[in-house]
Amino acid sequence: MTSLPQPSKKKLGLVIDLDTCVGCHACVISCKEWNTSGYGAPLSDQNPYGKDPSGTWLNRVHTFEITPNVSRCDQPDAPAQIVHFPRSCLHCEDAPCVTVCPTGASYKRSEDGIVLVNEDACMGCGLCAWACPYGARELDQAEGVMKKCTLCIDRIYNENLPEEDRIPACVRTCPAEARHFGDLGDPESSVSKLVAERDGFTLMPEKYAKPVNHYLPPRSRTDIDGPEPFALASLAEPEATGFLGWLDKALERLN
Amino acid sequence: MIRYIQGNKDHPVNRGVLCAKGSAGIMQHYSPARLNAPLKRVGPRGSGQFEEISWDEAMDIAVSWLKPIRESDPKRLAFFPGRDQSQSLTGWWAQQYGTPNYAAHGGFCSVNMAAAGLYMLGGAFWEFGQPDWERTRYVMIFGVAEDHDSNPIKMGIAKAKRNGAKVIGINPVRTGYNAVADEWVGITPGTDGLFVLALIHELFRTGNVDLDYLLNWTNAGWLVNNDPKSPELGMFLRDADAKPLIWDRKKNKALPNDDPEGQPSPKGEVTVDGIAAIPVFELMAQKYLAVDNAPDAVAERCGINAKTIKRIAAEIVEAAFENEVVVETPWTDWLGRRHERFVGRPVALHAMRGISAHSNGFQTCRTLHLLQLLIGAVEVPGGFRFKPPYPKPVDAHPTPTSANTKPNGPLNGPHLGLPRGPEDLLLNDDGTPARIDKAFTWDMPLSIHGAMHTVISNAATGDPYKIDTLFLYMANMAWNSSMNTSGTIDMLTAKDDDDNYTIPHIIYSDAYSSEMVAYADLILPDTTYLERHDCISLLDRPISEPDAVADSIRWPVVEPDRDVRGFQSTLIALGARLQLPGFVTEDGSAKYSDYADYMVSHERRPGVGPLGGWRGADGESEGRAEPNPNQLMRYIENGGFWKSEIPESARYMKQVNKDYQEWAVGMGFFDKPQPYQFQLYVEPLRKFQAAAEGHGPIQPPEHLRSRVAETFDPLPIWYPDSCESEEYPLHAITQRPAAMYHSWGSQNAWLRQLHTENALYVPATVCDKAGIEDGGWAWLISDHARIRAPVRRMEAVNRNTVWTWNAVGKRSGAWALSEDANEAQRGFLLNHLISELLPPKEDGLRWSNSDPITGQAAWYDLRVRIEKAPPPPDGASEPHLEPQESPVGTGSSGDLTYGKDWT
Amino acid sequence: MYPAISIIAFSTLSGAGFGLMIWLGLGFGSDEQLSAWVSLIIAGGLAAGGLISSIFHLARPDRAWRAFSQFKSSWLSREGVMALATFAVFGIYGLTWLLTENRPVGLGLLMSLLAFTTVFTTAMIYTQLRTVVHWHTPLTPLVFISFSISSGGITLIAIQTILAGGQLELRTLVYGLIPLIFAGVVKAIWWQRAAHTQFETPGTATGLEHLGKVHLLDRPSGAPTWLTKELVFVVARRRATALRRICLAFGIVAPLVLGLLAWNSPSLLLTAILVFFSLVMHLIGIFAERWLFFAEAEHVVATYY
Q1: Which residue of B has its CA nearest to C219?
Q2: Under CATH, domain C5-207+223-304 is a member of which superfamily?
Q3: Whether the predicted model's global pTM rises above the 0.90 cut
Q4: What is the pLDDT of residues B672-711, one digit of tens each?
Q5: For chain A, what are the domain ranges?
Q6: Is domain A12-254 given the CATH code 3.30.70.20 in the classification?
Q7: B896–A55 C-beta distance less than 8 A
Q8: What does the pLDDT look like over B107-128, one tens digit per residue?
Q9: Per-residue DSSP letters for B588-646?
Q10: Nearest-10 crossing angle of helices B280-288, B192-205
Q11: Is C222 within 8 Å of B792 when comparing Cβ atoms?
């Protein structure tokens, strides 16, 4: 069970657009809401109304600040930027979290590549969370079992839901079109095309986990490094009449 | 049991997406901070000591306070329902009660935005209109954080970016929408108007204005009296029918503005019947071509390179004039002229609180509208588009009212309206304010949303008069909704010489145990939003889209498990108990059984009620028709909303579009067509200004004369806000986190994990200069107070600005959180630093910390200095107020395992 | 990484126990019955105590039995299986020894091999993790094994010396102290490597390095979470330096010095006491070493925080 299956042809996963993610946490809460009463045990919260509340979440959004490499701090044109960075299970092809599991609870599905935890078999040793380079697994403190993103497996194959809703909750709710779901094993899928068009990348591929989820980088911003942008010609200079002279011509054009 | 909350894909606004707050609705509904039953205060105000009472007793108490006041002096009731989405009901209730003292929270929210838009365009940013996200090429968002319309803005930005449009964020802080903007302009707070005027200067300097649009659809060609000796100086020239005049450049004579043949001239002084006059356009050219508006002149003050300003102006021009958007639909204008197509300038602006909450916010917002109009980008494809029932001219709005029809009878009109001139101010014969909040006085003539933020201090000091009962709903005035929180708490608890509270009675309605609850004498507990009826009404601020009118309802999906009632139903019942006209039938019995009944059967005008869908006896009519008793059922069957598409020929240029005007009358937005031209030059402002210059019978008091003369410029201007100071060189501002909405998130077990405490974000250069490290503590000092707060170092922020998340800080004991909760220990408010009054002027008078035109609370004018502080020994921020007792106890400290019961 | 006491106790105690088994299986130690009883009880006790301690690290210990199922792929499972196999052979070996008063050589060698392998699999649980660069080196099993052998050896010396009333044989001493020096050297090399390991940065971890210097502005949650407590544990530099000194001084230097002093001790009682203390010191040192092994290890997830 904990051995990885032969790589599946179908590789379901997410494509996350860092260019439009505004960091609103809509996906974070929607994920919590769906999954606390969905697959497996609830996503519990500890000390929910007291000091240092914490809980189990399958999707979290970090906020990174990026200062330009070129030191131009005094130039308002080259300011620091902020990138909101959602982080959840990447459903890796070479999922290290699966092979370390001693009980067989962690597994990767051969049919679609989704990485899951069979909570009934999990003894809560936490080793899979140690093995995951992306912090995608959290040990639920009430249930004592490992929780992780299921790609909303209870939505995407749920025939009780309308077909358009058979997507992960985070994708369904994202207001900024920053989350896309599909088959990254199919080069013709919309998500694969997005990755191709937008220079999508995976996280730390050198860790040999071969993530399926991809990120789309923020698009290049202002063209301040490009050629001098076109400037508007002054009216006053070529013609002594200036603005009023221009006005006469503009009125002629109107008639 | 509520299992899951999902957005409705068919919903015209949200299209099925939900924000974090929406998905966390379960935790909002099951919050331990919910109030359980009506409460009567038993300890001193502020202690939080209450006893639960029955609804009968609660209503008896309320009636025992409200009935005698109504019989003796109705204005001794001040009714201010704060964040109220049912203002068409609450306002009407107050009108029937007969008190002039009613308003919602707009005065401390975004009245600048609303007033500027209404007077200039006939509608504002925010609920009144939105960018044409689909077609725009260039989006500029000014001072926009997580305010109104958050999901549509996220969806819109994504859509615009997908279509290759450029998004520019003008904001001192680069978070949220500004983080994903293609360019961020980290402007110095309060200087947006200056920046926009520099853009406008560039447009004029280079002749890049849409002359055709301006002369046809705005008052650019209207003639302004230019005779310095005339008492009418600055007013429009009008004909015998009071129609404004233009100068026809072909016929060389004056014509009324609605002459279909008229060809307005944009320039040249002319004489009409012996009066010198000049068109608005030339006045603008003179004003905005002045060198003090040039990019080089404003760059330093705005914190933006002049080169950048010029480039942005060039980009606007390119987007507007090189990428014209055409919709090939013929239409007819207000003068019967047929046009083959709609021509659009795909530049779209949006602005919000960052523009609004300054003492120069009204005029700043007007500069934005001026920019939009100059390039012809309002109500056109690709630009900024209105949502029905807007646009609507000033003439279609009432003027404000404070007079009763008869002694102690109803008010003879709605409280809030748009003053056309000094004659519409609400002043008593002796010049004293008619309203407790001093709205519509010379302090704030265009305070069209009232001034809720002044009510408590005015009532506490008896200025302009004392009141008996303060009745509030959903407004956390004892905490984050007031400037000077500690001072406000003192006012709420102040006593007179006889040991009576100076505000004798306070009634408050809230669903949750907020800080404000502790300061009320009687609590009327509201339900959660899942337990009640609501309507987002056509009489108020409906959910329309530019191409459709739409409104919506809420209906209860669970029954309350507590002894609580929806506030609107309570108010209706109270109206009946008080025998208010409109709330009782002829035999004196209650006219409406509850809010749901009111939503269906109330008619404000014949055939016009709160909801526009499925009207008429058979339920097949829209807009204007008699009530349909099964209306709510039809809404529920349709997913809770009603939507009706605007005919294609009526979708743009609505303000002058004949088809739209007729459609709008049919829908009941107004009773006859109201076409109008946009007002670049706002004559009502000139009327106030003229009064300040010594004209007319109603003139401002001496101490305000020069301020009114300077700020009420009929053309948009910029002036520095009220707080410029060398001693306090930094700006301090707040914004709402996307996942939280003010205070209502900290009681939510899921949302509070995202923002458990707030930090003061300080520019790296300021940190280094003050020797403050990331994670250290700082004193933040204003001329009013100082706070100690934990610091986070940040780069992506204007170099003179510190900021924090709004209202994450909480008072110990509130919101059913434990006393050691992070929100109550490390969390902090900037409100303590902000005074509701400015420091004394030379004459010793203290002006209100607000916009001199609208009275908008100037939250973002705050100036501070920063000093390194030692870490507090107890780890708590300062000031740290005493805990209040919680009338609902504290939320369980055990594990929360939502869903355990059925998984 | 969070230095959980249950895991530290597990690897140090079971390491000493299995280390002692390695020595016993190879025929070291007195053949006398008393020595057999004491040595076997201590070896079994340490190993079992360590393993029981590890159960406390499980959130669902009732399901610990499932951990034997995945030996084909999981080092933790292999560790369980090997520990079980070692115990089985250890049981037969011990019973045979006690009942027949003979030490079966073949079975002893098998027991040594299994114990050695068990310690190796324990080390591999950590070594396999690419997410913890400090651990992901062949040096890690070497550290675990050498400390296992040294602690087992010193335990054996202590048993022998105390049971012999303070008689310390040079041969015994040499066999005990050589692995000690070896362990010290290996750990020093391990630290040397750790000091020069390349970590991910927020830039490389997010793939946004090309945009500039990336650093975290806001964590995804306001308060610490299980994940941050478990993986983003940060030990103060001063504390780490102090503990390294304790590790070297107590774990290596003190046992060496005490051992040599014991060899030269004027009285048998003192010899016994010194030998006993060298064992205590060594175990304290290993505890410190193991605490640091976790606390100093930086998990790649920390670069997101």
Answers
A1: B754
A2: Formate dehydrogenase/DMSO reductase domain (1.20.1630.10)
A3: yes
A4: 999 999 999 999 999 999 999 999 999 999 999 999 999 9
A5: 12-254
A6: yes
A7: yes
A8: 888 999 999 999 999 999 987 9
A9: SSBS-SSHHHHHHH--SBTTB-S--SSBSTTS-B-SSS---TTHHHHHHHTTSEEEEEP
A10: 110
A11: no
